[in-house]
Amino acid sequence: MSYETPLSPRPLHHLSDVRHRVLSSQQLREHGVPSSTVNERCRPGGPWQLLLPGVYLLHTGPATSEERLHAALMYTRARTQGIPAQEPRGTQAGAPYGEAMITGLAALALYRFTSAPPLLRIDHIDVLVPGTRRLRETGFVRPVRTHAVPRPRLVTGVPVAPVARAVTDAVTRLTDPEQIRRLLTEAVRGGHCEAARLVRELSRARLLNRPHIVDAVDVLLAEGRSLAEDRLYALVTDHALPAPLWNVELRLPGGPSLGPVDAYWPDHGVVVDIDARTPRQEPDATWTRQAQKRHHLEHLGLTVVHLTPRKLRESPDQQAAVIRTALATSVERGARGYVVVLPR
After folding, report:
1. Which top-rank group of organisms is this from (predicted)?
2. Beta strand pairing status for 125-130 and 141-146?
3. Quick check: is 155 in a domain?
4. What is the pLDDT of residues 133-191, one digit of tens each?
5. Whether the Cβ atoms of residue 64 and residue 72 lie closer than 8 Å to each other
6. What total number of domains does the chain contain?
7. Is 324 exposed, middle or buried (0-12, 13-18, 19+ CB in 10 A)?
8. Which helix (H) or strand (E) holds 125?
9. Are 240 and 324 in contact (CB under 8 A)?
C-alpha cells in the first residue's frame, strides 16, 4: 500500500500536536488504523517508527524531548489499562496518562533546575507509577513504583511529581556527591520546596544514612530555617506591621527560660514561632517541647502565632492578616505576665 493512503475516516488533527505525533496502538485502532497498516508504515524507510512497545512516533527522525516524555507516559498508561485504578486526586476522570507522572531528573528539568541536565541529555526518563503496576524498564523509560501516589503538578501539560519527590527519586540513583549537593541545595534555595518536606521524602526513601546526603541535609536545614526567617521579615515589612523584637529568648524573671521565639511584640504580648521540625529530630519529644512552650506562654497571657515555612512561602498575605489580627485584639485579652527578653 502507499504511505500516502488516508489513515482513517476519523482524523487525528483534533489532538494536540504532541499527542498527534505520539500514539499508542490502541489509539491507532480507535482511529481505524489496522495493525497491518501500522506494521507497513514502521518498516525500514517508512514514515513511522516504534518508539516504545505499543507506542508509535508518527514521523521519521529522532524524537523530541517533549515526544519522549509523552511516549514514556503513554507506555506506562498502555501497559496498565487493563488494571482498574483510581485516578490521581485533583485530576479529571479519564486523564490521558492515568496515575503516571514524570519524576527524577526529567521532572527537575521540567521545573527548570539549573543543576539538572537538559531533557535531551537524560538517557532514562523516570515515571512514577502505583506500586501495584508491574512494569519493566524498557528503552528510555524507567518505572518507579510507589505505594503513596502524590498529587501531580502540570508543567507544560505534563504531569510531574512534586519537587521533593522528584529530587528524592533523582538522588536515589546518583553517586556524585557534588551533583547531589547541587540538586538538594537548589530545591531549597531556589524556593521550590521547604527543607523539612525534602528531608521527609529523603527519610521515607531511607536515604539519610548515606554520608554525602547527610552532609548536604545539615546545610539544607540551616538554609531552610534561614529562608523561613527571611520570609517572616519580608512579611512584616511588606505589610507594614509594627517592628517586633527578632530572634529573642523569653524568660520568667529570676526563673527558667520559656524558650526562643522568632518574633515578639512586647507592647502587644504577641509571639510568632516558626515550626521547622524535621524527621531527623525526635518527633514526639520535639512536639512535646513545642506544646509545653506554647502552653507556658499562653498561660502568661501571651498570644502565640504558630507558622510553618510552607505557610510563609505559599500564603504570606493570609499569615500577615493573622498576625495583624493578633496585634489588633491584644487590648481585649487583659493583663499579661511579665517576661524578660534576652537576645539569642
Report:
1. Bacteria
2. parallel
3. no
4. 778 899 999 999 999 899 999 999 899 999 999 999 999 999 999 999 999 999 998 88
5. no
6. 1
7. middle
8. strand 125-130
9. no
Residue at 295 is within a domain: yes
110 DSSP 8-state letter: H
308 to 21, 278, 312: CA distances (angstroms): 45, 12, 6
Q: Tens digit of pLDDT for each residue in 259-318?
A: 999 999 999 999 999 987 655 544 555 556 777 888 889 989 999 999 988 889 889 999
Burial class of residue 182, CB neighbours in 10 A (0-12, 13-18, 19+): middle
Cβ atoms of residues 130 and 161 within 8 Å: no
In a domain, 251, yes or no: yes
- The residue with cell 504511505 is 3
pTM (2 d.p.): 0.73
Strand ranges in 189-329 using DSSP code E only, listed in sequence order? 245-251, 257-265, 270-274, 303-307
Distance from C-alpha of 205 to C-alpha of 36, rounded to nearest angstrom: 46
Residue the block writes with cell 523569653: 250
Asked if the structure places residue 312 within a domain, the reply is: yes
Domain that holds residue 270: 234-343
At 233-265, the pLDDT tens digits run 999 999 999 999 999 999 999 888 999 999 999
For residue 53, report the phi and psi dihedrals to the nearest 5 degrees: -55, 120
